[in-house]
Amino acid sequence: MSSNRLFSFLFLLVLPFSSSSDTTSWIKSGFWYAGSVFPTPEIPTMYTHLHVAFAHINTSNFEVFINNSDEPYISTFTKTVKQNNPSVITLLSIWGGSDESPDFFAMTSEFSRRKSFITSSIKTARLYGFQGLDLNGVYPNTAANMTNMRTFIEEWRTTINSESNNSLILTMGAYYSPMLDQSMKYPVETIVRNFDWVHLRSYDYYLPSKNNVTRAHSALYDPSSTRNTDYGIKEWIKNGLPANKIVIGLAYHGYAWTLVNPNHNMVGSPARGPAITSDGSSINYRDIKGYMKSDGAILVYNSTYVVNYVTNGPLWIGYDDVEAIRTKVSYAKDKGLRGFAAFQIPNDDVDWELSKAGYIIILCKSLL
């Protein structure tokens, strides 16, 4: 059977997301942001792992806490999603902070603070039925922070392993590249020893609020820059993170730019700031599909960057469509990576178009 005919056959076969023993060892994970308007029982059963985002760090006692507004969602999440998919594994993702993660590194600087975080994180996971914990948004920027981060990671894993029921998965969300600047990088050797896998933020490389040209914000390749997923993954592997501990990030969102000249509408065209959203915030795939239906919209797939973009007058939106998701999942399989992590699942369209695209590629490569 030819590849094209096999692909067509599989497309019809897997619409209900039936399970396959050939694909169970691959991580097919996704994020669900607490507070999203989203019916959690309807999450497609093709996902093997679901991360809920985010718990936070209390800067007074350094315990892990959940915002009051998020508690109703997070406390019932595991029970709800397991109604349709009992085998799914849920993880609680903890946000380490922003602007070089001040909350996280304040916590890691003292033993008592680390102990408070570690104890409360495990307690919170057990309380709400999560089977794993995830650390996200941490960017060490000094030698002292790096040393403290190593110590914390070792203590976190040791504490989990010392429990009688030491079954918690431990994962980490990291920058697309291990190199944070010319002199600093993640403590790769410590990460390898203590985390089950690392899911990369392989998107948001460029933003309309910061960049005055249109760019592929989640480029798999970029011949003009090192800000691309292929480069980052190669750097992680070169620095010691095995491919089978790397989970590629998939973006179910895009960004809109305002073109300076509507006739110059390719990747790298001059722009004068955000379009659609005044602050340049992301636009989910479902809404992008709505803009694609506008009269006069031009849809383009650029295979150099592996990105879709749509233009309509001065409007330019860069995002990943079905074809881009298929290419990235195929890339991850070919490179021997551990799986993919979609951010975030509620951004998919009502027919789960992007979710299906990734799953079908996995089945195709398992059967070819």
From TrEMBL:
Domain of life: Eukaryota
The protein, known as: Receptor-like kinase CHRK1
Signal peptide: 1-20
Pfam family, one: Glyco_hydro_18
Molecular functions per Gene Ontology: chitin binding; chitinase activity
CDD domains: GH18_plant_chitinase_class_V (cd02879)
InterPro entries xrefs: Chitinase_II/V-like_cat, Chitinase_insertion_sf, GH, Glyco_hydro18_cat, Glycosyl_Hydrlase_18
Organism: Solanum tuberosum
Protein keywords: Signal
GO cellular component: extracellular region
PANTHER family, sorted: CHITINASE (PTHR11177), CLASS V CHITINASE-LIKE (PTHR11177:SF369)
BP GO terms, sorted: carbohydrate metabolic process; chitin catabolic process
Claim: Signal is one of the keywords in the record: yes
Entry keyword tRNA processing: no
Domain GH18 span(s) in chain numbering: 26-365
Entries under SUPFAM superfamilies matching the protein: (Trans)glycosidases, Chitinase insertion domain
